[in-house]
Amino acid sequence: MATFTKKKIVALTAAFVIVGGAAFAYWTAGGEGGGSADTGTSEVVTIVQTALADDALYPGGEPVALSGTFTNDNDGPTYVGQVSVAIEVDWDAQADLGAPACTEADFELVQPTATNGDVITGTTWGGGSIQLVNAATNQDNCKSVTVPLVYTSS
């Protein structure tokens, strides 16, 4: 068994204090670094017309309601301010060449009410309408036509 003298105990104690003290010493320095975070993109919200105006339009008849829903393929709600409706640009129908063509001028559109909010799939919109005006000209070319409506949103 080892015996420790007072000199050895003092030397060992001093060694522990020096080593122990060295364990708490450190340098300070500033630093810098970088990183990044990416944002995603958004998908287009699809405007779906659910109200059907089949065979309901005739000259001077009542306006037919336009309404529908949204399909939103984004990960979360997407803000939509206003749904707008228009008749496809340059659309016309003229089965009878002896009568004026049926054009967008034969119809009156009322824009849907503003959505002004976040939409998810199934959120509804409405308040719009389409009407076949009672023009002072022959409108026979507007019989049995399908009027192509184009919806946009902001």
Report on this structure.
With 154 residues, the chain is an alpha+beta fold. The protein has a domain at 46-146. The protein has one helix and ten strands; from the N terminus they run αββββββββββ. It has one helix at residues 6-23; strands at 46-49, 64-71, 78-80, 83-87, 92-93, 102-103, 107-110, 117-119, 124-132, 149-153. A four-stranded antiparallel β-sheet has the order 1-2-9-7, with no helix packed on it. Strands 3-8 form a two-stranded antiparallel ribbon. Strands 4-10 form a two-stranded antiparallel sheet. β5 and β6 (102-103) form a beta hairpin. The radius of gyration is 38 Å and the shape is rod-shaped. It starts with 5 loop residues before the first helix and ends with a strand. The mean pLDDT is 87.
Radius of gyration: 38 Å
Give the low-pLDDT segments: none
| Major β-sheet strand ordering | 1-2-9-7
What coarse outline follows from CA principal-axis ratios?
rod-shaped
List keywords for this structure.
1 helix; alpha+beta; single chain; 154 residues
Could you provide a short overview of the structure?
With 154 residues, the protein is an alpha+beta fold. The protein has one helix at 6-23, and strands at residues 46-49, 64-71, 78-80, 83-87, 92-93, 102-103, 107-110, 117-119, 124-132, 149-153. It is rod-shaped, with a radius of gyration of 38 Å.
What are the SSEs and their pairings?
Blueprint (H helix, E strand, L loop, with lengths): L5 H18 L22 E4 L14 E8 L6 E3 L2 E5 L4 E2 L8 E2 L3 E4 L6 E3 L4 E9 L16 E5 L1
Antiparallel strand pairs: 1-2, 2-9, 3-8, 4-10, 5-6, 7-9
Keywords: Signal
